Description:
Blueprint: E1 9-14, H1 19-30, H2 33-39, E2 42-46, H3 61-73, E3 78-83, H4 91-98, H5 100-106, E4 110-113, E5 119-123, E6 131-135, H6 136-140, E7 143-146, E8 149-153, E9 157-159, H7 161-164, H8 171-177, H9 182-189, E10 197-209, E11 214-217, E12 221-225, H10 228-240, H11 255-262, E13 274-277, H12 280-283
Helix pairs in contact: 1-3, 3-5, 9-11
Amino acid sequence: MSPLGERPVVAIAPAGADLRADIVRAVGVAGGFERVLAKSRDVLVKPNFNTGHPPPASSDPVFVKTVIELLYEHGAVHVVLGETSMVSVSTRRTLERTGMMDAALQARAEVVCFEDEPWVRVDTSGRYLRRIRFARRALEAHSVVYLPCLKTHARADFTASLKLTMGFAHPRDRIGLHLGRLRRKLADLNLVVAPDLIVLDGRRCFITGGPFAGTVREPNLVLASTDRVALDVEAARIIQSYPGNSLRGSPWRLGMIKRAVELGLGARGDEDYEVVRLNAKEAS
Length: 284
């Protein structure tokens, strides 16, 4: 439950000079790190390093490191950073090249490259995606924190929290996901695992192109929520606030979000959640 009431909250905080304080404020309004750690003090953190392209194509290691440090400060005993890059790309080399490997180790996180670990074939119970190989670490995780970036995506409309789940799927199985009905399949994939907290780095975003390169804008925002559908709707609206963006129509009509609503993965409409916009003074 949100500290503001029954409905989940999407907190939107301006990002200033003190990134740590901005993240703490946003997460506090959205439910707090304590909510995640009350479930388990073992936490799996999932960033976005499908490739090593610079933010917002991939996660900012400083942002990820800051969240890991905050999890430990709030009582976590073991934080795992888990990821797998796109097919034919070495996750370990990607993490090393971007500086994420060093940043994670400095923050005392265990780094897990899913391709080096066991996969489990799971039944999603979805309609458009039935079975897929899924990272066993993700299935066994007690608490999961998503750290998405914000960008448009040429095949899936945009990337935020729902799309981030792709990184748990076996790279070769992802090829099949792209052969048709990608947006619906991505929503079905989210039936397998649910994040306990999402902290989105919205300091920079793509408003066209993606996932590797695109037209960059700088919203300078941090978003936090426990509801992946609500967060993705608000993330899409941020992209849509810029002239010339590639997203058309209401976010609720975008294929991935529409299917997520059908599956009951989160909010079903604007009335199901609250948006709290923090001002610069509150976020500092």
